[in-house]
Amino acid sequence: MKETLKQARWWKYAAWTAPFVALAILIGEELLGFDTAPTSFIIVVTFIATSVFWWWWAISKIVYMVKCSFKMESNFEDIKKEIKQVRKDVGDWQRREQDSD
User: What is the residue range of 68's domain?
Assistant: First the structure.
């Protein structure tokens, strides 16, 4: 879980900074009189690749969370059964104690 939170924090930082860096590079090239077409192409390809990579990362984390929730549900069912068994055992023990008095 800590690893996922760390990864999400890095994605958040990238989402904050990458568009501004790309815009600054394009504006800088325009102001300096450079041809911005190759840089624009590189930026677009980078953004598309990052978007696809982020999409698969997000889907894998959602699948991981769903699996964890199913496992947790199963664990709760097991705990519920154990509590019922303990309750039954304590009730049986109390009845035996009362019958022996």
Answer: 2-100
